[in-house]
Amino acid sequence: MTQNNKMSLTSRIMLGMVAGVFLGLLFQFILGDKEDVLIPLGLFDLAVKGFFVDGLFHIGGQIFIASLKMLVVPLVFISLVCGTCSLSDPKKLGRLGGKSIALYLTTTAVAITVAISLALLVSPGVGYDVPTEAAFDAKQAPTLTQVIINMFPTNPINAMAEGNMLQVIVFALLFGIAMALSGEPGKRIAKVFDDLNTVVLKLVTILMNLAPIGVFCLMAKLFTTIEMGLILGLAKYFFTVLAALFIHALINYSALLKILTGLSPITFLTKMKDACMFAFSTSSSSATMPVTLETATKKLGAHNSVASFTVPLGATINMDGTAIMQGVATVFIAQVFAVDLTISDYLMVILTATLASVGTAGVPGVGLIMHAMVLNQVGLPVEGIAIIMGVDRLLDMTRTAVNVTGDCMVTCVVAKSENEFDTHVFNDPNAAKNLEKLD
């Protein structure tokens, strides 16, 4: 074991995150109101913003995210094909889909209900002055009918190239079913896919060991450029959203996991640390998907036949964190603009946001599109979104971690109900260390 591997992956990622935040805040203090500052080094000067922030940190962070995204399509496609073709019962696929979608919609409805209740209790928008320059151009959301039609690819290769995960999932399912029904030819191809899956998972492990550097670069750039003044001005809203996110992640998910499976929430949350830190640093459920899938199978004990379906589906339609932001933001905007919402209005917000989490799946900027839909539904000004956009970057990181936690919780519940869950792996504390070592 090398000196580098003596420290656990979790500790190294945390160290990279803390160091990045500290350096970013230091650079922000050095820059102040200046465009850039030169650091004299004798023979030459280094520009803080030009060389470090827009140079090294930007390049390192973007390469890290690009590397994770590079694995998403091959990992999802190969893993889902392997899982689907191994299903002995064709009806099982329908059960997996039904249970997964029902659980994802249920957790989303619970999330936004908690958010609205907490926001009504705290009243984050009372006394806030509306900025005169607030403006937001809301894009049109696709209809649910159009989304369902668009789930089926006309060109699967193009769907993979564009990263359209719903279309990739549908094609992988159909391809896996066809392999299972093809007899010996299907079995021969299945062996090739099993080998490909092993290779891709090894690549995931390699990238995970390089994660501390990527996390450091992302955090350093973010905290150099983030406007702390905006967060202070919207502190009540900001911390209300954070509180709702933590309540949902730590209490609601734990309660559902314990009630539906009997598994230990503490063990579950402990093993989610790495995936949550990845999600926090990348702000993308899709980019974190390779780590989420590895966590669900290698750390938590869900079999690949289930996890390869529920994790990609969750990364696409599970938007609990976004729903929480929408719940708090709806109350905040209503209070800022002095609009009284009735109980029926809040029930409409819950219903709209829950259904929109599926209806707008895979659409770029989905969070803002969903929020515009919700605001329009209850007659609130869409321009209110512009008020909260300044602090949304940091909140987006936190709600992505919540979404990933929800993906794994649902995966455990569905896998346990299908008897496709290894309790020994879940309870084994050493299973969490398997992803931290290179063979």
UniProtKB/TrEMBL annotation:
GO terms for molecular function: symporter activity. Keywords: Cell membrane, Membrane, Symport, Transmembrane, Transmembrane helix, Transport. The chain crosses the membrane at residues 56-81, 101-122, 165-182, 203-223, 229-251. The keyword Membrane applies. It is a multi-pass membrane protein. InterPro entries: Na-dicarboxylate_symporter, Na:dicarbo_symporter_sf. Its main location: membrane. GO terms for cellular component: plasma membrane. It comes from the Bacteria. GO terms for biological process: dicarboxylic acid transport. It is found in: Cell membrane. This is Dicarboxylate/amino acid:cation symporter. The lineage of its organism: Bacteria, Pseudomonadati, Pseudomonadota, Gammaproteobacteria, Alteromonadales.
